Amino acid sequence: MFSRQLATRTARAAAARSYATVSEASGVKVAGIDNGQPTTTISVVVKAGSRYETRPGVAHALKNFAFKTTKNGSGLKTVRETELYGGVLSSALTREHLFLNAEFLRGDEDYFLSLLSSVLSSTKFTAHEFAELVAPTIEGDSLAALSSPTTLAFDIAHNLAFRRGLGNSLFASPHVALTAEQVKEYGAQAYAKSNVAVVGTGISTEALEKAVAKAFGGASASSAGSSASGPATKYYGGEQRLPLDVHADGKPTMLIAFGSTDASATPALAVLKNILGGESDLKWVPGTSPLSLAAEKVPGGSAKAFVLPYSDASLFGVVVSAPTSEGVKALAQDVAAAIKGLGQVGEEAVKKAVAKAKFEVASAVENKQGLIALAGPQVLSGSVKSLEEAFGAIEKTSAESVSKAAEALFKAKPTVVAVGDLAVLPYADELGF
Amino acid sequence: MVWGPLAITFAPQLKAVAPGLFESLRPLANMLVKASGYRAMGLKYDDLLMEEREDVQKAIGRLTPEQAYDRSFRLRTAIQQSILHKPLPKDQWVKPEEDVRYMTPIVREVEAENAERAFYDTVQVERK
Hints:
Chain A is 45% helix and 17% strand. Chain A has 15 helices and eleven strands. Chain A has helices at 2-16, 58-64, 75-85, 109-122, 127-146, 149-162, 180-190, 205-216, 266-276, 290-296, 325-340, 347-366, 368-381, 387-395, 399-411; strands at 23-25, 28-33, 39-46, 88-93, 98-105, 196-201, 238-243, 253-260, 302-309, 314-321, 415-420. A six-stranded mixed sheet of chain A has the order 1-2-6-3-5-4, with helices on both faces. A five-stranded mixed sheet of chain A has the order 7-11-8-10-9, with helices on both faces. In chain A, helix 4 (109-122) crosses helix 8 (205-216) and helix 12 (347-366) crosses helix 13. Chain A is globular. In chain A, 46% of the residues are buried. By secondary structure, chain B is mainly alpha-helical. Helices cover 55% and strands 0% of the residues of chain B. Chain B has five helices and no strands. Chain B has helices at residues 11-17, 19-36, 54-61, 65-84, 104-121. The A-B interface holds A 74, 76-77, 80, 84, 127-128, 131-132 and B 61-62, 64, 113, 116-117, 120, 123, 125.
């Protein structure tokens, strides 16, 4: 009975799942995904994350320079007109991509696409805007990141794991001076047409294609240029310990991570993440995953597994935090034992984790942020993977392939970051790594 | 804008309407500049813009570091000469060709920004 229900459910889901096809309009890759939402979101995905930056922090500055004065009008004009349309503009930076997003009611795509196109082709990058409007927001972002132990731990973990490229910090450093001229140079490189893709939700590919051809054709000054590329990623690993300011509100945090530069291992890592777990499926109970059972023993503690996939590498690990450094120490020891236990997991646990991993992928695609974050980079690379393909890759993992992936991970040096009371927090070798 | 950050001038209008008259008045204008004596104190015209205004303050903040340094150097020189109650030696006077309007364009830019903000604050939207 249960299995039959399951079968009909998958069949229906497959029928209802219309996915995007990538096409090209005036040299820009375009894909629209229309599920009948009342609002439209258009994202310009730029291959200009911190990985490709020419100077530390310049990608962060470019993100904060979005929607400032262009040839078509000042930043104030952009904001006020967007308000009149009832739209929302935002920009986001990941390690590999820069997203310029516009959310608005259906039918206003012509205005917002011409706005996005003018941001790409004719942002003026004036020195006074940089000093008066952009630099303070960069400083704010960096300060907020520095005062959040988790954000800081992730940033440092990437730096330890990959050093350059993917290891570049997402945040501009207060120790490196930036000028508007440098941001302009990076922007000219980044906003080349071959380096940009347009992804829309709540708009069909054909409609988006037409609007993009109208907005990006001719007037757009951004020349063809070349797609950004960096050297292949290499995993290094290492350990770093940072004292946590006693007055900061953040909790002491430890991050234990392992890197993989094998893109084919990503589905197995997603399953590994769900074997460790850490997040309960129910309210008020810890659940059955090893990490949440360990976290249950420390009041206020949490241990969550994560996997961060990139185009040619991924970082897998656990982030541990507790109200006190002593709690983090106790929890980290249990977590280390759980990680070492990944070498031999039962078939049943793997099956459970596979189902969970599939649910995770599917539910990420359900909201527009998740959809754009997932589909954007794929559109940029030329083809969108269907959900079935992603499911298939995850389903193929078995107990053997998971333990093989775990073995391959643990061969390399781990990345361990400790933020908190350094007299208490354990060193990597004390955790048995 | 009558009471803007810059002095009232009809020069652009005059130049457009009667270029001949404009040119004929030029020697008179130069005499006036000489008589006002700011170049003899080592100043440029834009150093005399009224500073106690938010828009001019903003414009001063937008000068390049070199411009800002030169400006304060000129102001210090002028203050020193004022204390001494005498102009600079003649060879150190600011030459007419050096007396460029380095800050006026920036002040105009700030003025335009303020006007734009005022426009959008009071804009009436017509929906078609």
